[in-house]
Amino acid sequence: MSKPKQQSLFEDEELPENPMPWERNSQNLYLAQIVLNRPVDRVFHYLVPESMRPLLKPGHRVQVPFGRGNQLSPGYCVGVGPADEDQPSVRLKSVDTILDSRPLFSAKMLKLTRWIADRYLCSWGQVLDCVVPAGVKNQAGTRMVTVFELTDPRALQGRNIPEEIERLPAKQRAVYDALKSADQPLTMDQVMAAAGCGSGPVQTLKKKTLIRSHQKRVQHFENGDDAAYAHITKQDDLQLNRDQRMALDQILSAIRGQRSETFVLQGVTGSGKTEVYIQAIREVVSYGQQAIVLVPEISLTPQAIQRFRSRFDSVAVLHSHLSDSDRHYHWQNIAAGKVQVIVGARSAVFAPAPHLGLIIIDEEHETSFKQETAPRYHAREVARKRSELEKVPLILGSATPTLNSWLRVIEKKDTLISMPKRVNNLPMPGVNIIDVRNDVQVRRNESLGRVLFTGMQHALEAGGQVILFLNLRGYSPALWCKGCGNSVKCPHCEISLTWHRDKSLAVCHSCDFSSKPPTHCPSCGAPGLRYVGTGTQRLEEEVKAKFPNYTCKRMDSDTMRGVGSHAKVLNAFAAGEVDILLGTQMIAKGLDFPNVTLVGVIDADTMLHQPDLFASERTFQLIAQVAGRTGRGMQGGRVFVQTTSPAEPAIVKAAEHDFLGFARLELGHRKEMLAPPFSHYARVILRGPHEEHVEKFARLIAEILHDAAEERKLSVQILGPAPAPIIRLKKYFRYHFQLAAVNVEEILQLWREVDPKLPREKGIEYIIDVDPVNMR
User: Where is the Helicase ATP-binding domain (predicted)?
Assistant: First the structure.
């Protein structure tokens, strides 16, 4: 089968014909350094044919023959130039095709991606492939058309062209004149319209070689995202209070000084951090520059976009719910400098903004900023590095900053900006810790205890709205046997199946296995399994039964699958069409609804008792963030936190809105243990089909790393190995251990030196996650 014609991504520019796949190395060689999307961090050298030399630049995507079969593989050019004098004389393969007419990566972005590869122990090619969206690589939203233009006069030497043109019939002359006056090549339809003729004169001129045709890629984007927000009217900037003005002045000083300073904007919920962001971006845009704003949840994106679109002329959005065509459309506009503000989730940190002036990470404490697959980067650290390379400020905004960021403030590495009061001096909501261990209704397996139920009644009767938070989806989180005390687990994972009543299925939330619930216990055969615990589906059913006269909506990953589903529910809630909004983490942060007068945390213990170093920190953050959704209007607000651990410091400090007290307490514990952020961890996870083999191999690798650390006199501790908290996941048994060191560079050095020499065991895979946030 013939190879498809080479196509240009950005513009109509003819690229050279494909060279022969092999050329012999000799003097005056011109080489390209190419990296591939493979878990091998190596740069490969390829010859650059003479016809490609003026075109190939670092940052281009290319196709190169790779492996014994010389199968064409996509790669990325990271360097190009004459070969060194000491380059060995070997047979090198040649670059086959340049895939784009313009480089996809700037020099700074190449430096950033190289840093990510080094920092997170993955290959450069994996990072580069992650940065470019699939819609850009696939050129979604574009198509190839045939266009016509005048033949280059140099190709017509020896002919009397003026005389030939004079003798042309009228319609052919009209075609020639139309193309001559056009400022770009025209399609057949455009030529016929301009010349007032059919296709015949065009084809005749082509046969006479006075005009030529070629393929051109054109855009036919239908950007639904812009249309969805077309109704938003422009608004003026708001008047800032004293705290906001002081915060903005500090940020503007760094912007005007072109400093790469990092600001930790610690403002209580409702303190007006978003308005500070907007007015800082206003300054950046006035210089013709661009700003990147990262938000943690797709549910926050619609509200964030509305705020920014009401203030700025061009806002692009990058998130996982976009179609490939829309993503490509935004990428093109951003790269062309046509976009003022880029709003998006984690991957938007890589937006190809050529005139970047500011980076903002809102709710910087959120774990969703850490990527769970290779490359396992953290967007906060990537943004920190990018701000350094671009010499622009970085703002990390949160009411509850991570202890990592807070320690950097204490050590004077980052600058603290404090906003301790709400806008208009509104009071923080009162938080009531409700001990439900002896609550009659909770003991009857109801979700709403007596105090919370009564509080909801009063709030709704007074015309207020209610938000209920529960971080467990489904109907019942466990199917439990009274006979043997075991729960029904997924056959592929060591995880209890969750009963989804709406589907009549027991579902695994890790591998998506589902089945009809068994009638007898798989362990002991006893009949009569019980459905234990409460998920968001069951909570919704209970709320609708107890408050039949009020409208209730649920937001979790089961109900928010459709495009625009988040915006639809949140807009209805903002308009007062929904009285009670309940859901998982996606409703816990960033949302601003002044009429919410009560927030209920159904079970504050769901994250507290996890086998996770960060469990206490995350519990504090969740409660503080959920509590911040109320009391934003003149009616005030109240928070009810149901728990069986009322004396737990994380819960008590969150109820007191005491971030400083919690940070001081938790940092004290972490320092005693020399745990993050006072040290760095890298988690190594091994998996395979046979548990005993995985355990044995984990011990072998841990011993090799331990011996290598001692030999190199590196202060790296090996913690483990041990079974992972979820020992079986998606049919594979899992063991893990951790590398711990005060200086992360020692961990990176050890792994880089030892990993290539580690033995390989058939059927067993392993990965390394630097600075993990998920310890399951």
Answer: 254-419
Distance CA 139, CA 215 (A): 15
Q: Is the CB of residue 120 less than 8 Å from the CB of residue 770? A: yes
Give the HSE-up count for residue 432: Cα atoms under 13 Å, Cβ half-sphere. 16
Strands 142-150 and 186-187, by their bridges, are antiparallel
3-state secondary structure 402-431: CHHHHHHHHCCCCEEEEECCCHHHCCCCEE
Tokens of residue 469, six digits: 């938070």
Are 186 and 282 found together in one domain? no
- Confidence at residue 138, expressed as pLDDT on a 0 to 100 scale: 82
Asked whether residue 552 is marked as a ligand-binding residue, the answer is no
What CA–CA distance (Å, rounded) separates 98 from 419?
51
Q: What is the pLDDT of residue 676?
A: 95
Q: Domain containing 98: what range?
A: 22-132
Q: Check whether 88 has a pLDDT greater than 70.
A: no
Q: Is 197 marked as binding a ligand?
A: no
77 is in an annotated binding site: no
The amino acid at 363:
E
User: CB within 8 A of 412, min separation 6: which ones?
Assistant: none
> Do 611 and 465 share a structural domain?
yes
**404 and 343 together in one domain:** yes
CB within 8 Å of 495: residues ≥ 6 apart: 489, 508, 509, 510, 726, 729
3-state secondary structure of 148: strand
484 is annotated as contributing to ligand binding: yes
Are the C-beta atoms of residues 687 and 764 closer than 8 Å to each other?
A: yes
Number of CB atoms found within 10 A of residue 25's CB: 15
Alpha carbon distance 279, 266 (integer Å): 17
pLDDT in tens, 402-458: 999 999 999 999 999 999 999 888 888 889 999 999 999 988 889 999 999 999 999
122 annotated as belonging to a binding site for a ligand = no
Is 130 annotated to bind a ligand? Reply is no
End-to-end distance of the chain based on CA atoms, in angstroms?
A: 48
Domain count, the chain: 6
The predicted-structure confidence for 695-737, as pLDDT tens digits, reads as follows 999 999 999 999 999 999 999 999 999 999 999 999 999 999 9
The CA distance from 649 to 662, in Å, is 8
Helix boundaries (H) for 579-714: 615-627, 649-655, 659-673, 691-711
Q: What is the mean pLDDT of residues 740-751?
A: 97
Residues 716, 607 share a domain: no
Per residue, what are the HEC states of 547-573? Answer: CCCCCEEEECCCCCCCCCHHHHHHHHH
Between CA 396 and CA 359 the distance in angstroms is 9
- For residue 226, being part of any structural domain is answered with no
